[in-house]
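Example protein was shown:

_____
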Amino acid sequence: MSSPSTTLRTVVHDFAQGVMLYNRESMADFKQLKNWFKKTGYHLIIAADAMPRNFALRGKAVSQIPAGGVAVILDSIAQATSATYIGRSRVHNQSADFTVKTTKGRYHLKSIALTPAEEAGHYNGFANQTLWPLCHVAFEEPRFVTKWYETYKKVNQKYAKAIKASLKPGQKNFIWVNDYQLALVPHYLGTLPENTTLAMFWHIPWPTWEIFRILPYKEKILNSMLKCNFLGFHRSYHVQNFIQSVARELQTRINYDTRTVYLNLHATVVRNLPLGVDVDMIRSGRRKARVFKDYFKRYQVIFSVDRLDYTKGIKYRLQALDHFFTHYPGYRGKAVYLGLIAPSRESIPAYHRLKNQIMDQAAKINLKHQTKTWQPIHLVYDLFDRAELMNFYYQARACLVTPRDDGMNLVSKEFVVAAAQSRDPGMLVLSQFAGSAIDLKAAIIINPYDVKAITEAIKTALEMDKEEKIKRLTKMAQVLSEKNVYQWATDFLKEAIDAEA
């Protein structure tokens, strides 16, 4: 059971961790991570569902996958550490095994081939219709289908087999498992050789025990994750929820002061480490948009970019935009909303319904407000490369990031870094339920369910004094520079190695 003083201990722990983060002699960068990790003597194996590179059928990397998120982050870390990266092939029944070479570094990439049935059961089924809605407070009912779980186990076994085949005998190995798609991989790894560190980062929220307890396979998931030496989450309350779930479901001993779980004579250290972004890469991005030029020239652009997902709060956001143009008609013909929506999980019924609902909602808002030469809502259902996204961030007058629940949300952090480079930047409107809100306190923070609050936040963002915006963005960008992706990776690797010792 949770200790009565857990909350106080959490506050003290988070304060101490914050002091640690801000009192380093220097922040980490790509080169420092590369040099430090090389000295450790470890061979790093990164396992994730996210695939950072496309590949041709003959097994050659042809391009970086344009969608952002974890794939882009892990790609940079893999380069810095000369890792072996194991991910899910995006081509059915075809795998690849090759070296990725860039101007910064290289790493080995292995993709695991799945059949259409395996992808349907593992990714579209158990991962994203069971675990995903269970972990996000989005009021989408999780489905429990035994066949999906059996396929999920099978795919996790494939990952474990590939990981064990990638271990280097006679060398220290570090296995880094990522996210909810691979929760059973630690279990299927079985007994590992000495000098092997096993760690996992869970990138989405961990729900409260009251929600988690309905999962029929909860004990198997927890037991597997506790095979790790170290577990990482983005937010402190995710750690609290995980430890509470363990305390209520398993016979364990828990040290709440050190956030360590003891199960079957094995210790697992649990920490919150908010994910950062590659600040230098964002700052070096292009500054002039190649597409939608007229939008940025003619209008004040209210911008957003999301994966198609019910957790992103898109429907409430559109309601707020309708409310905005209704109550502030002076912006008609002067402002537009440009929403980029990346295709995602379209074979899942909930996502297919969501797409139709969003498109229908946008059409009704346009019909209500449009003139002969202007319409307020412009939704673009497509992928854009990262350089183009940086251009949009740089020029937008406001950026709306309004998820109903989100483990972190890198879009908000990328926007801040890019916008901070502008002489006349836009402003960030951010959901209080995004994990990034813990770092981006100077944004305009809103409740994504409060349509009126979003409306007023949009108006505030568009009308905020330029000096005030620059002051806020500069402050947030400095925080992100100190807590960048390389510092995050360094902290994660160091703490996991210390935990194993």
